[in-house]
Amino acid sequence: MLTNFSEIQLLIPSSELPLYGKRILVTAPRNYAYRLSEEIIKKGGLPVFMPTIETSRLSDFTNLDITLHNVDKFNWIIFTSRNGIIAFFQRLHDLNIPISTLENSKLCALGKDSESLLSICGRVDLIPQEPSPAGIIAELSKISNIQGQTMLVPAPEVVGLPEPNVIPNLINDLNKLGIQVTRLSTYITQNIDKNIYEVELNLIRQGMVDIIAFSSTAEIESFLIMFDSKSDYEHSIIACFGPYTATNAESLGVNVSIISKDYSSFAGFTAAMADFFK
């Protein structure tokens, strides 16, 4: 007996699904790309895999290790990405620092990322209603004694492209609440050499890609480096995973046609793409 609705959906002919025949370029790094691609396939689309950024381990763990050995001094640890969660707890494990060291720290994660945090350490103390940095600020501002508390923000070290404003803006807003913030680089985000994407880039230039799906500002910045002219990709519809990524895309000169209203999961992102073609 089928109990999963997504399994039932797979019995529907592809031609009856809303993204049937649509080639959708996935620029997310591979640990996110496979989940987004799965949602695209469920709606009949054809994902074209072209991550424009990748994540990797730090080359120097000195600052990370010093902070983790003193992690119990923080009142809050705010995770803004699944990568940050994985890198943070992997290093704790490598250093043989028990998760119980965090028992006096409140943990925050966004949207579906909270599932990863819950599976690793068994608890999540704050999941903002809006899965965004603005949502974090909105929730923390409701806490009467938040001023003066100490907060750790695991974040990427950005290499090879301009750092998006997301983390700097978050830290600035946290400081405005009177919080003592420590930013901690836990992994690297870097651009990918465009030379490996000759086939995919030609598909875009030829107008063979229906949608270019961006899930972060870093993906957009790295994508733009790969082209000489806006005309190279203007035949494709641009989709962004939520209003913050869309705003940054527009500021970079990219015209956005699809913005997901539900940006807590990739299912919401693909639903927005499907709605566009209805």
Task: Outline the structure in words.
- Helices cover 37% and strands 18% of the residues.
- The protein is built from 11 helices and 10 strands.
- The protein has helices spanning 5-9, 30-42, 62-68, 82-94, 113-121, 133-140, 166-176, 198-205, 217-225, 243-251, 266-276; strands at 23-26, 46-49, 53-56, 76-78, 106-108, 150-159, 180-191, 211-214, 237-240, 258-259.
- α2 (30-42) crosses α11.
- The radius of gyration is 20 Å and the shape is globular.
- The mean pLDDT is 94.
Strand content: 15-25%
Judging from the principal axes of the Cα atoms, what is the shape? globular
Overall pLDDT score: 94
Rg, alpha carbons: 20 Å
Q: Find the count of extended strands (DSSP E, 2+ residues).
A: 10
Any descriptors?
single chain; 278 residues; alpha/beta; Rossmann fold; 37% helix; globular
Quick gist of this model?
This protein has 278 residues and is an alpha/beta fold. It is 37% helix and 18% strand.
Write the layout of secondary structure elements.
Layout: H1 5-9, E1 23-26, H2 30-42, E2 46-49, E3 53-56, H3 62-68, E4 76-78, H4 82-94, E5 106-108, H5 113-121, H6 133-140, E6 150-159, H7 166-176, E7 180-191, H8 198-205, E8 211-214, H9 217-225, E9 237-240, H10 243-251, E10 258-259, H11 266-276
Parallel strand pairs: 1-2, 1-8, 4-5, 4-6, 6-7, 8-9, 9-10
Antiparallel strand pairs: 3-7
Helix pairs in contact: 2-11, 4-5
